[in-house]
């Protein structure tokens, strides 16, 4: 568990928790717990994605994947334990003056994002799509669930840490999370084509090798870059009504579409 959750990574999802919460003046203790919970779910998903039955990868964050380091059985159990630890954190960690009702909202939000209506369901769609020809609407529907749901939830978990949560601000952040979740996947698909294994810390060209539908395959590299730019702009437009405290969110959107460029 420690090998996978503490062993490097960009920590984009926890950063989104902090950025969204700070935009609304959330309690730091609450943000710490939410950020840890979402990173535990993310690390679990990477362990399971790398397994032979899924994407069968041997390298993650520049190191052997969990199942290569410890064996498949231990890796499956580590992933399972990290997933459940996330909900234990949200249920029991110190979160300042956050109400029990708000904790329940956060637990429900993360469970939905990780389950059949989110990440796990999206992964099932991804596995079923190998070797298939999807149109752009089908591709985006898959990635809204597989990648986008947890990123969107990260933003909203940060928002839910704020004691004062205007409905308009929550809606704006929800739209922001949806757009950057898709933008993150578009850029991942681009980097799978343009990046090296050394730069990515994982096997380059893996999607192409598995014959997965991707944005560059459907739109071409230039078209994929244009789509990432459109999603970035839509994310910025969504939070145009938030003040200077939302600047980290604007920076993170830029980072997501520029990384590896």
How would you explain this protein's 3D organization?
- The protein has 13 helices and two strands, in the order H-H-H-E-E-H-H-H-H-H-H-H-H-H-H.
- By secondary structure, it is mainly α.
- The protein has one domain: Orthogonal Bundle (Farnesyl Diphosphate Synthase).
- The chain has a two-stranded antiparallel sheet with strand order 1-2.
- Helix 3 packs antiparallel against helix 5, helix 7 runs antiparallel to helix 8 and helix 9 packs antiparallel against helix 12.
- The longest helix is centred in the C-terminal third of the chain and has 28 residues.
What are its keywords?
Farnesyl Diphosphate Synthase; single chain; 72% helix; 2% strand; 261 residues; mainly alpha; two-stranded antiparallel ribbon; 13 helices
SS-based class: mainly alpha
- What is the number of strand segments? 2
Radius of gyration: 18 Å
Give the fraction of residues assigned to helices.
over 70%
Distance between the termini: 31 Å
For the largest beta-sheet, the strand count, sense and barrel status come to: 2 strands, antiparallel
**Mean pLDDT metric:** 93
CATH architecture label: Orthogonal Bundle
Q: Number of folding domains?
A: 1
Can you tell me the CATH class? Mainly Alpha
- Residue stretches low in confidence (pLDDT < 50, at least 5 long) are none
- In CATH, the homologous superfamily goes by the name Farnesyl Diphosphate Synthase
What string gives the helices and strands in order?
HHHEEHHHHHHHHHH
CATH topology-level name: Farnesyl Diphosphate Synthase
Gross geometry: globular
Share of residues in strands: under 5%
